[in-house]
C-alpha cells in the first residue's frame, strides 16, 4: 500500500498530547486482520517509509491510519437476498413481512462478507503542535470523522474546535466577483488559479466548471455570478502551495513544492523533511485564509470517549 503525500485536507483545531504520550495511546488500537463477518476496521500502523508509529517532523508529528473494508456492492446483496426471499415465498405461498425481508437482506450481506474482497488504504494525518492544527489527508468527511473518533477512543478525550468561516460560500463568490472587477486585494496573499466551479439551484442543480485561464473567460464567469451562480470550489495559489478550496473549507488537489535531496539522504529522512515542509507551508495557507475570510473563534467541542 502506498502512503500518499498531502493531496487533500480536512482541517481541525485540536489539542493532542505530546509525541511521546500519543505514541503510547496509538498502541492501544493496533492492526489485526478482519474476521470473516467483520465489514470494516481501522487501526494505527507504523509509517511504511519511516517505520515509526509516530513520526516526528518539524513543529509536529505524523501518524498513519490503516482502513480495511470489505467491498460488497449493494446490487450483489440484493440479488442474493431477493433469490432467497423468492424461494421462501414460493414455499410458503405468501409474501414475507418487511421485517423478515430485512433480516434476510442482512443475513445475505453477512454471508457475502465471508468471501468479499478487502480494500485497504493508508491515511496520512499531520499534527502541528505549534498551531494546534490537525490535518487529515482526505476529501471524505466520513474518513475525517473516523480518524477523530479513533483518536478520541485511544486518548480518552480530544479537545477540538471547528474552523468556522462564516458564510464562506457567499464570501468566495463576492471575492471572486470583486477580483474579476479589478479589486487586487480580493484574495490578498493568494493568486487565483485557472479552475472554478459554480452552481445554482433552480428546478434542478446547475453546475458550470471553468478550467481556462480566468482572464480569458472573465465576462462569462461574471455573467454566471450575476445570474445567481455561487462558488462551489476554486483554485488558489499561495505560500508555495496550489489547491482547490471548497465552500466547506476543505482542500483538494493540494500541490506543494518537492524538495531537492542528496543521493546520500535515505528515504526516511526525505519523507520526514518533505512532510514537515508540506505541513509548514499548508499551515501558513490555513492561517492566511482564516485572516482573509474573517475566521471566527468557534465554540469548543469535547467529543465523548
Automatic annotation (TrEMBL):
Subcellular location: Cytoplasm, Nucleoid
GO biological process terms held by the UniProt record: DNA recombination; regulation of DNA recombination
GO CC terms in record: bacterial nucleoid
Pfam families from the UniProt entry: RdgC
One GO MF term attached to the UniProt entry: double-stranded DNA binding
Keywords: Cytoplasm, DNA recombination
Similarity-based family: Belongs to the RdgC family.
Protein name: Recombination-associated protein RdgC
Organism whose genome encodes this protein: Klebsiella pneumoniae
Source species taxonomy: Bacteria, Pseudomonadati, Pseudomonadota, Gammaproteobacteria, Enterobacterales
Gene: rdgC_1
